[in-house]
Every structure is written in C-alpha cells, then in structure tokens.
Amino acid sequence: MPYCDSSKTSVGETKKSAHFPRGSAFPFNPRVSPAMYSQSLPIRWGRSESKPIVALPLWKRSLDIACCLVAFPFFALCTLIAAVVIKTVAPGPIFFQQERVGFMGRRFKLYKFRTMHEGASTSSHQSHFAELVASKRPMQKLDAKGDSRLIPGGWLLRASGLDELPQIINVLRGEMSIVGPRPCIPYEFEQYTGWQRKRLNSAPGLTGLWQVSGKNRTTFDEMIQFDVTYSEKRSLGMDLSIILRTVPALCAQIGDTRKSRQAVQPKAAA
Closest Cα partner for 227 from 170, 171, 188? Predict the structure, then answer.
C-alpha cells in the first residue's frame, strides 16, 4: 500500500517522498484527494499512530465507484427536475455548497440541492445543535418543527435524502464514500471532545450505520457511538448491509417527519 513519509531537509523544512511497493493498488496522484490513499499522520485523534492510516481500502473505493455509476442516470434526472422546481418556488441557485469536516478533520466543500431560501441564517441551527447535545433528546431536525428557512417542499427533499444526491460528486472526488459517518459542520466539530472526534477516523458518507439505526430517534451520544463503531469495524459486508437498509430507513424518516409536522401545525394554528 502506498504511503508518504517525511524527512528533514538541510534548512529544517519538511520534505515528503512517496514510496509505492510493487503491485500497489493506486499510483500516487497529488491532485486526487488524499482520502483515497493511505496517509502517515503522527496523531490519530489523541493517540500515536506510527503506521499509515488507510481511509479507503480498495474494496470500498471500488464499491463507491460502482454505486456512483449506477446512480448517475438517476442523479441527472433529479438534477433536471430539481432545477425546474427550485427555480419555480424559490429563485436562486440550484446547488448549495457548505464547508464540512471530513476524514481526520480535513475541510472540503459539500454539495447539496438547495432546500432553503437563499441567504438563510445558520444561527437557529447552531442553537438547535447545542440544545440537542446538552439535552440528550432525540436528534430531530428543525424541519420537524416547521423551519421557516425551508423552501416549499424542501422538508420532503431533506427527509427523503434526495437533497444529498449531488454528493456523488464528493464521492467521485474521494472526499466522501457511499457509506460512512455524516460530515459535520465546522462549528459542530469545534464542540467535539477527543472521544467524539474518533467518528472522523473514517471517510464521511452519504449513508451510514447511524442513519439506518434510528437516526432522528437517537441521541447525539448514540450517534457518535454508532459512527465510532462503524469506523472500527467497517467491512464490505457491513457496507452492503447498510446500503440495503437505507431505503427502508428513509421511508421511516419521511413518515416520522410528516407526523411531527402535522403535530406542530395544529398548535401553530391555535
């Protein structure tokens, strides 16, 4: 497996050199995200790590590419439909970009279909996240309470996961995987403890163990535990199982969100 090591030059600067054993799975390409290869990093969220840290094994990268190829026609169709719908109900860009924290704390731009009004504030989400962490309540999104920032129909796109389809681009770029912990927002990451940061020991994904194990019915600590467990025990069999369980989990999530919204509407009317 290829890896990079560091050595000191005469002027004290760090010089990187790459070594590739014969039969290596990937040739090194500096333009490709390092999440696709193995890296030699001194610290792995609080503990020493002398061996190269592998983000995406060959089997996982192969599964990602295969899933992207299968999903691409559906993604193209959804992009066309989303372009018409979003431009009609809420003028503005079709896609939404946001900085996220991925593997080992690396920052990258995540892509989604826009489901909120342009220029929507993040202050309500920040306070909602802090409340969820402190209260140990199930991690329901603001969508369930009737978030005013959402465009018409935006809650359905989010509950069904269709707004996440553009992240196929992130997967192809090696910044994400199909299966893995959801990438967090920088202000969320800043509140993580050392143990909670272990969830970043695996490349972030579109779906994951937490998503198919209750998601909005689980607490913040339970989410972290699911993600850490996946990072430590991931395998081809586990990934395939999670992919197969994703659609039923999304259907349950749509139902939960609809019920929550219906329960809030009568109170708002009163």
Answer: 188
